From TrEMBL:
SUPFAM superfamilies: DHH phosphoesterases
Domain (DDH) ranges: 85-152
Protein name, entry field: DDH domain-containing protein
GO molecular function: exonuclease activity
Record-linked PANTHER family: SINGLE-STRANDED-DNA-SPECIFIC EXONUCLEASE RECJ
Native source species: marine sediment metagenome
Length: 153
């Protein structure tokens, strides 16, 4: 059954529950995790294994195919070596909070004490904004790293 509800102009789609047959194919996987995998299109042992147990030498793209990635990495290392003030600006959703936390942990392990900033959804809206940037300038932030922010702006 594919149900939809409408709340405050938001449309929720509740996906169908996985079948008992599908659950029985993967008894070692928690049913909640299995439901999430199924919802995201992982419906075979091969695809599930590829997602849960990736071979990083072949299942993950090289991040250096992104334009100017080497420059970004060099700039981050320079900031760490020079003990510059780094601020990580993430989005307020689950991906943004997670990516901000991971980047914070990595930079801390590399010897920096970065600041973090998650915008207030109601007051600041989506993505990087001018008032936030102005406050970072006042705090003398040397390097601003965004993660999980919209790339179109």
């Amino acid at each position: 059954m594919n149900m939809t509800t409408n709340s405050a102009n938001k449309k929720w789609q509740i996906r169908p529950t996985i079948t008992e047959d599908f659950k029985n194919q993967f008894p070692e996987i928690n049913p909640i995790i299995l439901q999430l995998l199924y919802n995201h299109g992982f419906k075979t042992q091969e695809k599930i294994d590829e997602f849960l147990l990736p071979d990083y030498s072949q299942d993950v793209h090289d991040p250096f195919i992104l334009s100017d990635m080497a420059k970004a990495v060099d700039r981050i290392y320079q900031a760490i070596q020079n003990k510059e003030k780094i601020l990580i600006y993430g989005d307020y959703d689950a991906d943004g909070i997670t990516s901000t936390a991971l980047l914070f942990k990595i930079l801390k392990e590399l010897g920096n004490q970065p600041d973090t900033y998650l915008p207030d959804r109601d007051k600041e809206g989506y993505s990087l904004n001018k008032p936030a940037i102005e406050s970072f300038i006042k705090k003398k932030i040397n390097l601003l790293i965004t993660c999980d922010c919209r790339i179109s702006n």
